[in-house]
Specification:
two-stranded antiparallel ribbon, Rossmann fold, RNA binding, 5 helices, RNA-binding protein RO60 vWA domain-containing protein, about 160 residues, about 15% strand, alpha/beta
Length: about 160
C-alpha cells in the first residue's frame, strides 16, 4: 500500500485511510479491517485522525491480499453489512474461496441479498474480482478525483 497513485505523491495507503475515515464519520454502522493471509479487526473510529490511523497501520504486517477475507469474516461473525469496500494498491489474490463466491455465500447466510462489493485497485493494473454478471459488484481500477463519487453512486444504486 506504499505505492503512489499514478501521477501523484499520494500513497495508496494514505488515500485508503482518508476514504475509510470519511466512511466512519458518515455511516452509522461501519467497521474497518486489514487483511492479507489473515484478517485483523481495526479499532478505528470516526474521531481518529489520519495520522493516528497511519501510526497504527505501521504495526500491521504484509502478505498476499486475499480479497475474500472481509466477507468470510462477516459471515463467520454474523455481521450485517450491506456494502463491502476493499481498498488495495494493486494486489489482489484469493485463497480457497473467490471473493465473488464469498459475497454470494455472505448474501445467502446473512439474508442481505443485495449486499454489494466494491474493490478499488488504486494503481491501474489488470485485475478482476467482481463477477461481471452481478450488478452488485464493482471493480475500480486506478484512482482519481472521480472515484469517491463513483463509489457513492454505486453504493446508493444510482449506477
Amino acid at each position: 500500500m506504499c505505492a503512489k497513485i499514478s501521477g501523484t505523491m499520494l500513497s495508496c495507503r494514505n488515500a485508503s485511510v482518508a476514504l475509510s475515515l470519511v466512511t466512519l464519520k458518515n455511516e452509522k454502522i461501519a467497521e474497518c479491517v486489514a487483511f492479507c493471509n489473515d484478517l485483523v479487526e481495526l479499532p478505528y473510529r470516526g474521531d481518529w485522525t489520519i495520522s493516528k490511523v497511519l501510526s497504527h497501520m505501521g504495526s500491521l504486517g504484509c502478505g498476499p491480499t486475499d480479497c475474500a477475507q472481509p466477507m468470510l469474516w462477516a459471515k463467520e461473525k454474523n455481521k450485517k453489512f450491506d456494502v463491502f469496500v476493499i481498498y488495495t494498491d494493486n494486489e489482489t489474490y484469493f485463497g480457497n474461496v473467490h471473493p465473488y463466491q464469498a459475497l454470494r455465500d455472505y448474501r445467502e447466510s446473512s439474508g442481505i441479498v443485495d449486499a454489494k462489493l466494491v474493490v478499488v485497485g488504486m494503481t491501474a493494473t489488470n485485475f478482476t474480482i467482481a463477477d461481471p454478471e452481478d450488478a452488485g459488484m464493482l471493480d475500480i481500477v486506478g484512482f482519481d478525483s472521480a472515484v469517491p463519487t463513483l463509489l457513492h453512486d454505486f453504493v446508493m444504486g444510482k449506477i
